[in-house]
Write a structure and sequence with these properties.
Membrane topology: Multi-pass membrane protein
Organism: Pseudomonas eucalypticola
CATH topology of the largest domain: Growth Hormone, Chain: A
Largest sheet: none
InterPro entries: MFS_dom (IPR020846), MFS_sugar_transport-like (IPR005828), MFS_trans_sf (IPR036259), Sugar_transporter_CS (IPR005829)
Strand content: under 5%
Distance between the termini: 29 Å
Structural class: mainly alpha
Shape: globular
Radius of gyration: 22 Å
Number of strands: 0
Oligomer: single chain
Number of domains: 2
CATH class of the largest domain: Mainly Alpha
Subcellular location: Membrane
Keywords: Membrane, Transmembrane, Transmembrane helix, Transport
Number of helices: 19
Length: 443
């Protein structure tokens, strides 16, 4: 088929798409790395800076607080200034703030560095995913966006490897090298992103048609032009108010609700897996094995989901993910005193089945909103979902102590089943649709 008659969403995957997936996935990788590396350095860092329990908690939470503000900021900047410009803010902040941790001498200074790193992570989500989805062919849109979730776990795993290696070799100042190590990833991310073009869809939305046409020819070949991108400019506001006024309020509620319900139990389980497993009578080697197995099953669940997303469809995958993972949590609540194999099997089932909802966190927000407000919607979803995750994680130790493990599992199951209700009532099907049709309110 000639380029002059072919929609760019139907072209084969090429080297540019593969590189852009890698570049955009770097943001999720750094997120996993930055949020995990602090735990490795915490013990030595606390002693060196004489941190009180208050400052230990604040520094541990600082990056999550930054992600909350960064999501909002990144969404607004990406839709107003463009994808290409904002695409380089995160890597620069990763480099500068990571290196600054080599010289911090107080808890407030370290808090500021970690907060800005979280800010950079929050900025990454809307810009990296919006730029990627606006170039990807429709056939590969779901699987490629879903794969970014796997990058988070890869970053977390890499943090444990690098962090423990540096801690064993770095002496009394090892914690500084551990925290500063994220600068190397930021530098790599900055270098590989050089030369990334602006999104033609964003250019078109701003009336910059000549530039949009030039980008299309540069990426897809001289036989392609704006005629191969059937999307017209729009004047919709990129603000939250503009989002609501233009009929996308219901979709924003859906995205925020399902995103929050899918990560609240995950963050809680992931952060307190040993404590939760101990409460379920798994001790010693069983608890250690269980923590590792659950982490691996989270990854496997996301991998399976990314492979099945075009087979099952978005709506069906989300409903089944919440249904079966919620059932696993419910059974854990019913049998908190079950034998080791039963507990591990149910926890493993939860980790495996929740993968569908996990990978859709970056797929649905990017498909359900038009170019003019896409990044703002992703940013809002990122920020608001982190509130629930932070609150849920904070409450887990209190819940275990006050109401016990059984009722804690009931609460986690209830959160998951709220996600199921939201999916059943509001989740649309966007599989096989063009990006323009997926974002239209009519389907």
């Amino acid at each position: 088929m000639k380029g002059s008659t072919r929609c760019i969403e139907d072209v084969p995957l090429n080297g540019f798409h593969r590189k852009l997936t890698l570049c955009s996935g770097g943001g999720s990788f750094v997120d996993g790395y930055v949020l995990s590396i602090i735990g490795i350095a915490m013990l030595q860092m606390s002693a060196a800076l004489q941190l009180s329990e208050f400052w230990q908690g604040m520094i541990a939470a600082s990056a999550l607080i930054g992600v909350f503000f960064g999501g909002f900021l990144g969404g607004v900047l990406t839709d107003s200034l463009g994808r290409k410009c904002v695409y380089f803010i995160g890597p620069v902040l990763f480099i500068v703030c990571s290196l600054a941790q080599l010289w911090v001498a107080s808890a407030p200074a370290l808090f500021v560095c970690r907060f800005i790193l979280g800010l950079a992570v929050g900025i990454e989500y809307p810009v990296a995913t919006a730029l990627l989805v606006e170039f990807l062919p429709r056939r590969y849109r779901g699987p490629r966006l879903a794969a970014l979730t796997i990058m988070w776990f890869a970053g977390a795993a890499f943090a444990y490897i690098v962090g423990n290696l540096l801690m064993s070799q770095g002496g009394e100042q090892a914690w500084r090298y551990v925290l500063a190590s994220a600068a190397a990833i930021g530098l790599v991310l900055l270098l590989v992103r050089l030369g990334t073009p602006e999104s033609p869809r964003w250019l078109l939305s701003k009336g910059r048609t000549a530039e949009a046409d030039e980008v299309i020819k540069g990426v897809y070949g001289p036989g392609f032009s704006l005629a191969n991108l059937p999307e017209q400019p729009d004047t919709r506001s990129g603000s939250l108010w503009g989002l609501l006024l233009n009929g996308y309020g219901k979709r924003l509620v859906f995205v925020t609700l399902f995103w929050s319900c899918s990560i609240i139990p995950v963050f809680a389980v992931y952060a307190f897996a040993p404590k939760v497993l101990q409460a379920l009578n798994l001790k010693g080697d069983w608890a250690a094995f269980g923590s590792i197995a659950i982490t691996l099953l989270f990854v496997i669940g996301c991998i399976f989901a990314s492979k099945l997303i075009n087979v099952m469809g978005r709506r069906s995958m989300l409903i089944h993910s919440f249904l079966w993972s919620g059932l696993a949590l419910l059974l854990l609540g019913l049998f908190p005193d079950g034998n080791e194999m039963l507990v591990l099997a149910l926890f493993g089932a939860y980790a495996l089945f929740i993968g569908g909802a996990q990978v859709l966190q970056l797929v649905y927000p990017n498909e359900l909103f038009p170019t003019e407000i896409r990044a703002v919607a992703v940013g809002i979803g990122t920020s608001l979902s982190r509130i629930g995750a932070a609150v849920g994680t904070y409450l887990v130790p209190f819940s275990l102590q006050s109401v016990g493990i059984g009722h804690t599992m009931y609460v986690a199951a209830a959160v998951t089943l709220v996600g199921l209700a939201a999916a059943w009532a509001m989740a649309p099907e966007t599989r096989s649709l063009s990006l323009r049709d997926a974002a239209a309110l009519s389907h």
